[in-house]
Structure formats: structure tokens, C-alpha cells
What we know:
Chain A is an alpha/beta fold. A 7-stranded mixed sheet of chain A has the order 19-18-20-21-28-27-26, with helices on both faces. Strand 3 (36-39) of chain A pairs parallel with strand 7 (229-232) of chain B.
Amino acid sequence: MWAIGPLGFAAPALLAGLVALPVLWFLLRAVPPAPIRRRFPGVALLLGLTDDEAQSDRTPWWLLLLRMVAVAAVIIGFAGPVLNPVSEREGDGPLLIVADGTWADARDWSARQDRMRSLLAEASRMGRPAAVVTLTDLPAEAPEFQAADAVAARVANLQPAAWEPDVAALEDWAATLDGSFDTFWLSDGLERDSRETLLAALEEHGTVSVFQTPRQTFGLRPARFEDGNVVISAVRTPVGAEAETTVAAIGRDPAGVERQLATVPLTFAAGEALAESELSLPPELRNRVTRFEISGQRSAAAVTLTDDALRRREVALISSRDESEELQLLSPTHYLEQALAPTADLIEGTMEDILLANPDVIVLADVAALAGTEAESVLEWVQAGGLLLRFAGPRLAASDISRATEDPLMPVRLREGGRSVGGTMSWGEPRSLAAFDAASPFFGLDIAEDVTVAAQVVAQPDPTLAERVIAQLSDGTPLVTRKTEGEGQVVLFHVTANAEWSTLPLSVLFVQMLERLAVSTRPMTPTAEDLAGTTWLPEDVLDAYGQLAPVDTLPGVSGERLAEMRTAVDLPPGLYAGSDRRVAVNVIGPEATLSPAVWPARIIIEGLESRLETPLKGWLLGAALLLLMLDIIASLALSGRLRGPRADVAAALGLGLLLAFAQPGQAQEAAPDTVPDPEAEAFALEATSDVVLAHILTGDTRVDEIAAAGLYGLSDVLFRRTSIEPAAPVGVDLEADELAFFPFLYWPITASQPIPSREAYAKLNRYLRSGGMILFDTRDADVAGFGSGSPEGRMLQAIARPLDIPPLEPMPGDHILTRTFYLLQEFPGRHASPDIWVEAAPPGEELAEGMPFRNLNDGVTPVVVGGNDWAAAWATDERGNRMLPIGRGMAGEQQREIAFRFGVNLVMHVLTGNYKSDQVHVPELLNRLGQ
Amino acid sequence: MSEAAPHPSQTPADLRAKAGILAGTLPPLLAGAEHLAATVLVGDHGRRRAGLGDTFWQYRPATQTDEARSIDWRRSGRADAQFVQDREWQIAQSVILWIDQARAMGFSSDKNLPSKALRARLLALATAILLVRAGERVGLTGASLPPRRGSQQLLRMAELLSHDDAADYGSPDAEGMLPHSRALFISDFLGDLAPVEAALTRAADRGVHGALVQVLDPQEEAFPFDGRTVFESMTGGLRHETLKAGDLRTRYLDRLAARKDKLAQLARLTGWQFHTHHTGDSATSALLWIYGALERRR
């Protein structure tokens, strides 16, 4: 390939064609555009006229230039120009491209993919078969070498994994390799043990080149607690100059939105591979943290998930059952509550309930003995990992518990009676605390000088006593003792939890001690023994890029595997949920370090940067085509064909060409404007220019006829008696017509009508939600009570099931429908069944004093359900004659009149809402007006 | 010109073909002309003076020269004087038409526009129909169709008008014009003006007045050409090549305007009327103008 700067040519010989351009210039220049022949009677007037200037016999220079450029573009295009041509790499035979594919690759994975593509493109040019393998996702067999083009198409599918290659699997895979091939190894730059063996294996088959860029890789170790602070540490490689990063604590805010809760700067000193920083978070916030992230790093190692280690404890408080009304400050648990409330969830209740809740800590304040079954279950709970925290007190001192033999729920045996020092009846001064041992969980806490102990229960000396003491008085008397019981522990404070025996509960130390105890209840990382036989389900899994995504398709992981904490395909980093807790598996362990990969001197290491070559042939030929199109238009314009008789055609053609080139695809996107259906428009106009009552078309001609006639009659009555002046009623086809125009729908139910479609139901629900009202009429006089007695009733149930209908109740006597226009107490139609169902009133509304009605001022009932066949009672023909007989004689006419009144009330209710109901406030309003 | 009849030749086959074409074109032409003529109300196409005729013109007091039998006694009975009923003068006038049949008239710039010849014939026939309806005598110049009245004359005229001349541009034939008759010349007047001038002077000599109607295609009026063009007359006999047709436009339009001026001036001198009609415009307006022009008297 012959190249000028970044431009290479596949067939440079063709460029010689450019020499012909000047010749072409003269040729084109000599040939003017061909004349048009026109028949024109007016030629007689033209005879003798001469052209002012003889310009058009030469092609104008700009048109020439246009053509020259077009021809030059064609010539250059066919010469096969390539931008950034890649210089060839020598070699033949199959080519294996190996990528580590670990989390460390994630940050620049697309660059690696580009590199693979360019390597493959090169292999393709040289006709070498190739294969691509990521070490974290090894194929079962030896790589199959295929055409490099085909392999390149699959490069986009490769993804890095959030774990490191599995050593054993690598060795197995290396053993399957055979034949001779060259290897390109895209390294992630981190040293790991498996490298050397694999390198050796690969070198047996051919040369190995390594692609690697030096860059800093960071890893965030799991956060841990130290002195109440969260300690965040990170490692880096290669170790270099001072670097500063920021670590963000991410968790859900009280609204449940995931956000950055805190940030802490993390500074790597020059030459240091490890950086630590402390983050002091209020427990409230700390409990919310789900993970820490190094800002700006896209890799799984820059994320460390927190599990239960940072979580808020559940603490159950149980005090002696004292029914007396004592002062709050004397309550045995008052100070505990004060101390624990900010940092823990407090549970109170009976022991059975508390054990069901499985708290982290149970505090027994001056509780002597537990009932037999309670004691057993508490012991079980302790052995399962609970922390039982006991406080002494008068009851404990007076009881016999753990006197002769050690109670399993007491850390030590107690002497009878306890002691009091510095009291009125004793010698000596109240004792203060001694410094804490290094073995004590309280080690490091400052001892407040003002903490004194005036009374306590005293431990019986025992061989085990010394190791169980975690805090003692200045005279060596144990103050806090602890023993482990199963996986849990029992801790006893030998003083009361209130300030009766000591000032300890009043001091800050008390809170700190509690925090130490509560926090250290659980080990931070579970051991293999803890986890043996358990199964853990992955809840959220980190991908290589450090994105946490919930999963529910991964299989459970056995506890033993989890305890290894070694991430791999079967244990991706993430959060694993067990029976009662969650364990975080992080890419970087608490002790992990990173170091840069070291390659033997014989291996050639290249950088990762690659510039993809861009063939320009298509662009150039396209440009040439475009120029020739322009030339066509220009020529037409020059020779006058853009004007004159056929100019419109030519202009349209030219414009079309221009547009087609300027905005490809634009023309197709422009959808024709939706033309409103004139029929629908007319319908909408008819329905909205007046109030229109509507009935649903059932498909039963007679029923529809009566419904229409009924609404006609009702509209007539409304027109004559009220200010509502409806237009002629409309029959509505549920499937086709828009419902939103109608304030009121009358829906006679027939047993044979079809169930509406899903779209119709969506429409109906929208209608009901937006304030419409439907009067369902089963027309069966509700013979069987409400329900499935009649076919219409069953049909109504079937129809109404998908509808968004609120709870219903039979119309109460004070319902607004009884007084929106007429005062009514019954609602007959052709039948006079009393059962009408409307939306149930909100519970708890009481009859206002001195008022006949309840205060029910909100909402219009969206449905009214009944079976009185109102339409039949309302039905009149065009001249106002009643269509159907109702009842007998005058009583029937009276019933019809009441039916009409019900209709009027109903439509009034629909249109005015609860206006009438608000009149209960009239006395109050008048009162305020001072009348 | 798609409907051009073949040049007259004398073989029976040609005649027969011609007859077929005539049968095809005549009725539409006539029907079109009738249609056009129907848009003009004939009204009182009298001479508007007392004379010999059938229709009542006016009552005038009887004079000494009036015969006693000519006195209208019914009218005279209502007054003291005697009145004579005058009739309107209804002498038939002869109108001679000349329609340019040359090839240049066959030009039509757009397939939606009629050719000039079609428009000219339509106007001529419609005028003839109106005149015949008014009782005038209509004929063509030359000896081919002397003025006569009656619908048979219309048919003959239509047949004669269906011929096309082989020449590029036509020239009027001043023969056969009766003294003091009326004349109507319809042409595009794009050819040589000398014969037109001669015909007009001769007509003026004989006391013939009339109207010149110049029928032009909109393209001839606009000259919307550009670029390198070879213009040819309809027969191809005349050619003019230009490299920039756009440059010629103004000069062409100047020449056209000069020609119209010349024609108008000629008409003024000889007492004729001149009008330019475009085939893109409505034929009715032209017909109304012609009607008015022939009606006008000096």
C-alpha cells in the first residue's frame, strides 16, 4: 500500500488518471451544451437578431470545475484510499487473540474491542484464520480458528467479567491447545499466578505478543468499622506519584431513591500502594449505605458492597414486670432506650413475640428468671448468634439465679446479695472503673473519671472468671462479664441499667460500651464453619463495570463456596441473601493487593492504541455521484431547460434529487397528517354542542328502541321542568364511539349482549374515572335480590367485572340522589323494586347533629345499578305519547311520574354533583353572616 | 397540430379520408361555435333607425309625404295629430370573414391550450352563427364562399375553414369584398404585414369596415426561453439559432409590440378595429369584442 501521510491507496496506479484531467478540461471546454430545437411561429420576429455575447458556446468555468472535481473524485475513489492504513504485521498461520476479560479490562473494554477488530482486520487482509478467547469465559474446547471477518463480527459480543480467570480451568484449557499459532495477548495489566503457566503453554505453539498499557488500577477493599468510624481503604497499582480519588458512599435516602450519601477523599501518598480514610457517618446514615464506590472508575473493583456489617441492629428491651407507676427516670430501661434509640431499632413486647422477630440483641434489665420455655428458646436464640445483654438489679440480686450452678443465660455465678460500697451503711468510697484490657471489646474507650459504682452484684470466683471479665472496677471486681454460648454471647453488666447503683448509665461511656457490644455482635466476614450447609441466593450482582443489578435467575450458592470469597463464574461479586442476613462478596478482599503484570524480557509488549482504518472509496464515489447530479441540474439551468415549457418537470426532478441527497430518508418519515374522520367529527360535534343523554347499544333492537325512546321522554321532561335542555339522545356503540362527550350513559343489560372488548373496557374505565356516570339497568325488577338470580344479573356481573367500580351499597335514605331536584324516597321505573345500588359512602361518617343527612360532600357515584327498567317508564314517542303502560290507572301514572322524577334527580346529580349536599352548611353560613 | 387535415390532394382515398375527418371535426366545431354564440344575446340587432323592416320602430307625426294608408289610425285616434308607424330598417348586411389557415396558426404551446387556428375558427364560426341568426349574410373573402344567409352557409363555411394552408404564414385575400360591407380578419399577423396592409387599404377604398383580431399563443407573448436554442417555424422553413435565448426576449417583445402598434395604426387609418386575443383567455370575451366591433358604426 502506498501512502501519503495518514492516507494510503490500494491501487495507486490509478492515480495516474489524474494526469488526464487537463485534457478533459479542454475537451469539455470545447463542447458547448447542445441546443434545443423549438417550433415557434414567432421566429419571424426573431430573424436578424444576433446574440449580444457569445458566451454559451464555451462551458462556464464553474461547471467545468464541478465536472473536474467529480472526475477526480472518481479516479481517487477507485484508487482505493484508506485513512490510517495499518502497516502490515508479518506472520502467517492461525492467530489466537487472548484477552484477560477481567474487571480490570472493563474501564477501556471498547478500546480493547477496537484493538481486537483491527488485529482481526489485519489478519483478514493476510488471510489468516483467527480465534478470540477471553480468559474469564473460556470455551470448553480448544479455540476453533475461523475466517477473521467472521470472528470480528463476534467481537462486539465479548464482555469482560467481574472476576479473575480460574486457575484450574485455565490449565485445563491450555492443555487442549494444539497445532501451531501465534498469540496476541491483550493483558489487563495485573499480575496473577496463572499468567506464567499460560504464557509458557502458549509459547509452545508459536510466538506471543502482549498488548498492555501502563495505567493505574484501583481496588477498593471492603469497608470496615474501627472505633465507630467506617474505614475505607483502597489499593492501587502500579505505585506511582501521589494520587487522589474520592470514594462515595451510596445508599437509599429516606425516600427510597438511591443517591450519594457521603463522600470521602482518599489520598495515595507517593510510593504508597495503600490508602486509607475514615468516614464518620451518623448511624442513621451509615445504616443506609449499600456500597462504596471510587468515583469515576468503571470497574467492579472500584465498588465494595456493604452487607449486614454496617446495618442497624434490632434490640429488644425487656425489663422486670413491674406494674407500679414509677417515675420515668427510675425505669430500668429508660437509659437504655435513650442510649440505643439513635443507633438501633428497639423492640418491646413479650418474649415470645420478640423471639419471633429474631432481634440481634435482647436486653434483660433486672430480670431474674425466665419462664421455663422462654429460657429454652432464648438459649436457642443465643446459640444461634444472638447477644443477650443482662443488667443486674435488686431482683437479680435477690434471686437465686446462677447461684449454685452457672445459669446458661448468665456469664458467671453470682454471690448472694451483692455489695454496696460508699453507701450510708458501708465503708469506702464508690469505686471507679479500671482501664480496659487489650482483649476487651471496650479496649481503647476513655474511662470517664466521674463514673462511680455504688452497688453491684458480685461474681463468684471461678476458674473461667478471669477470661470472662471484660470490664472491671478499679479494685478488680468484675463489672461486665461475658461468655460465649454457641454462636452468640451472654453479657452481664453487674450494675443496674438505671442510675440507681452507678453513674455508668449517665455517662457517654455507657453508650460507647453498648455500641461496641452491639456492633461486634456478628463477625464481619462469616467463616466457612458458619456457612457450612447453608445456601445463599444472589440478590444483586456486580458486573465488570461496577454496575449493581438485581438478579433473580442465578442459582443459589452453597455456604462453603461463599466462604471462599473467591469470585468466579459460579460466585459473581454481589450481595447474597441467606436465611437471616446478607453477605457481600466483593472483588477485592480485605487483604487483597494489586501488582502490575511482569512479562519476561523476550515478550514484545505493544500499546493498546489502535486507529481503525477508514476506507474512503465509498465516500469519494458518493461525492462524485452527488457532483454529477449537481452537474445535471447546472447543465439544465444553463441550457434553459429549467425554464420554459417543461421547466416544472425539470425543476421538480432537480429539487427532488437535491432533497434526496441532502436528507436521505426524510421524505419517508414524514407521515401524512392524521385527517380527522369526518363522521367521528360530526358525532363529536353533535354530542358536545348540547347536553346529550346517551344509551349503550345492546344489539337488541327492541331494547335499544325503548332506551332511545326513554331517554327522549326524559330529555323532554328535563327540558320542560328544569334548566337542563338536552338535545336528542344518542345511541352509543361502545366499540366505535367516544364516550367522553356524554355526562350520563344509560346501559340496559340484556342477557345476550356481547362482552365489550379490552379497548372498550379501557374506554369505559377512563370514562368512569373522569367523572362519567353509568346507570346499569337489568330490567328484571331485581326479582332474585341482587346477584346472579336472573340472566341479566349474571350478564351484569360479567360485564362489570373488569370495570373500575368502587364498593357499592344499597342507596341509603340520605343519599344525595333523593334530593337533587325532587325529594324522593323510592326510585321506580316500570318496576318498583326498592334496591338501587350506588357507591358506598366512606365509613365513619356520622349523622350530623340536628341534620337529617350525613356530611357526604364528595364525589358523584360513578354507577347506579338497579333493575327497574326505567327506560320503559320514561319512553315516549315523538309526540310525547307514552309508549308503554305502567301499572294500573292513576297509580301507574303516579309511578311513572316518580320514575320521571328519579330521572330528573339522576341527571341533576350528574350535572351538578353534590351541590345539594353542600346545603347542610347553609345554617352554618347563615350563622356566620350574623343572621 | 394534431388535428391538421392533410393537404388537399385529389386522390379519392384522400378525399374520403378528408371527408371522414370533416365529419369528425365539423360537428364539434359547429357545436362549439353554437355554444359560444349562445352566450351572446342577439337582442335588437337592428339598424336602430327607421326604415324597411318588420318590427315596430316608432310613431312619428305624419308629414305631407306620407300616404294616407300609412297613417296609424289607432294611434292617431288618441290624439289630434296623425301618426305614422315607422318600422325599423332591417336591411341585411354582408360580413366577409378571413381566417388565417396557415401552418403558423396550428401552434399550441401546451396540450391544454387550443391551437390558434382552432380558436380562430371557433371565433369565426361563432360570429357567423350570430350574424346568420341576426339575418345577416356571411361569407369568406375570395371567391370560395360569397356572402349568403342561412344555416347551410354555416356548414359550408365550417367545411372551408377546416382546410389548412401549406404556407408558414397566411395573407388576407381582399377579393370578393362587397362595397360598404363589414369584414373580420382573424390571424396571428406574425408573417409579412404588407399583404395585410394592402388588403386593408383596398377594403377602406371600398368603404369596408371591420375588425382585426390577432390570436396569439401565451408563449408567443411571453417568450419564456433560455439557453442555446434553435427556433424553427412550423414548416421548418425559417430557422433562427441563438446561444442565449434569454437575451433575445426583450428584443423579441419589442418587435412584437411594434407589430401590434403597426396593426393598430393601420386599423385606425382605415377605420377598422384591432384586438389581440390569447388562446389562454376565454373565447367568449373575444367573441363579445368582435360582436361589439361589427356592431359599431361610424
